[in-house]
Design a protein that fits this description.
With 306 residues, the protein is α/β, with parallel strands linked by helices. It folds into two domains: 3-201, P-loop containing nucleotide triphosphate hydrolases (Rossmann fold, 3-Layer(aba) Sandwich), CATH 3.40.50; 211-303, Helicase, Ruva Protein, domain 3 (Orthogonal Bundle). 44% of the residues lie in helices and 16% in strands. It has 14 helices and eleven strands. It has helices at residues 3-12, 20-31, 46-56, 72-76, 110-113, 117-122, 157-160, 174-184, 199-210, 216-230, 241-257, 265-276, 284-288, 293-303, and strands spanning 36-39, 61-65, 77-82, 87-92, 99-103, 124-127, 130-133, 139-144, 165-167, 235-237, 281-282. The strands form four sheets. It has a five-stranded parallel beta sheet. Helix 10 crosses helix 11. The radius of gyration is 20 Å and the shape is globular. InterPro entries: ATPase_AAA-3 (IPR011703), CbbQ/NirQ/NorQ/GpvN (IPR050764), ChlI/MoxR_AAA_lid (IPR041628), P-loop_NTPase (IPR027417).
Length: 306
């Protein structure tokens, strides 16, 4: 594994115990210029994980607590009249940062959710006809609670499609939970974290990630996976070209993290569920027959000739 990346993962692991795979996925999204949706139970460490990432790369950190009364201007910013200068001045919102935690994103209205679409896709924000570029890197890590439905608004497909991955952290094993008790009972380990990388380091590494080689055979695997979702009898909405592109970019970053300058089929196998599962919509009759998205995607992968 790349030494700098290994140090970054180890640093985050000082406060997130026993979740190496999940940490690697988040670093993969960071290097692939993607965003991530964390859907999990309260109290498993979603917010701590995002804080640890921001502190480990010495970046600006912003947090938005999504509520039903949140307005788009609360995210992007607003122009306020300055009487001394006799003109309007734009006050930047919390979206102008490097690492943005969108906490409980499904608790606000679709109108407010959509204010993040341009930022996530194009790295910019347009307010009152003026376009403002966001900092580089820019990454959104959104959280949502899967068990609470009252007072929530399901994320529309267009919003879900902007996230490179959707994943869960899950409950810790017994040994990891013991470490949590010992480390978090009297202090906050986040305060002890020191930056492992600078933003310049991240920019340079992303340039190296772009050089990772992807063979035509790997491209055919990605296209085959996407195409089979579009023609599957249990699937109502298959993978879009954006989904294929994000898997392509994620596989390059994942290969780089593992010390290779080329992608192998195993990279695709380890990533495709996290990249594809939230983009697929099953037909109602499939759900009635207790068919789930993960099972369908696994069957599609097993039928590919690799």
């Amino acid at each position: 594994m790349n030494k700098k990346i290994e140090l970054l993962i180890e640093n985050i692991s000082k406060v997130i115990f026993g979740k190496r795979k999940e940490i690697i996925n988040i670093v993969t999204c960071l290097l692939a210029e993607g965003h991530i949706l964390l859907e999990d139970m309260p109290g498993v460490g979603k917010t701590t994980l995002v804080h640890a990432l921001a502190k480990s790369i010495d970046s600006d950190f912003g947090r938005i607590q999504f509520t039903p009364d949140l307005l788009p201007s609360d995210i992007t910013g607003v122009s306020i009249f300055n009487p001394k200068l006799s003109k309007f001045e734009f006050n930047k919102g919390p979206v102008f940062t490097n690492i943005l935690l969108a906490d409980e994103i499904n608790r606000t209205s679709p109108k407010t959710q959509s204010s993040l679409l341009e930022a996530m896709q194009e790295g910019q924000v347009t307010v009152e006809g003026k376009t403002f570029l966001l900092d580089d890197p820019f990454m959104v890590l959104a959280t949502e609670n899967p068990i609470e439905y009252e007072g929530t608004f399901p994320l529309p497909e267009a919003q879900l499609d902007r996230f490179m991955m959707k994943m869960s952290i899950g409950y810790p094993d017994n040994e990891s939970e013991k470490n949590i008790l010992r480390n978090f009972s009297s202090s906050t380990p986040l305060e002890k974290l020191t930056p492992i990388m600078s933003l310049t380091d991240i920019t340079e590494i992303k340039k190296e990630v772009n050089k990772v080689f992807v063979s035509e055979e790997i491209e055919d695997i990605i296209i085959g996976l996407a195409d089979n979702t579009r023609n599957h009898p249990d699937i109502n909405l298959g993978i879009s070209p954006r989904g294929s592109l994000l898997l392509y970019k994620a596989s390059k970053a994942f290969a780089y993290i593992n010390g290779r300058d080329y992608v192998i089929p195993d990279d695709i196998k380890k990533l495709y569920l996290d990249v594809f599962s939230h983009r697929v919509i099953l037909k109602p009759e499939a759900r009635l027959n207790d068919v789930n998205t993960e099972e369908v995607l696994k069957r599609i992968f097993s039928k590919l000739k690799i």
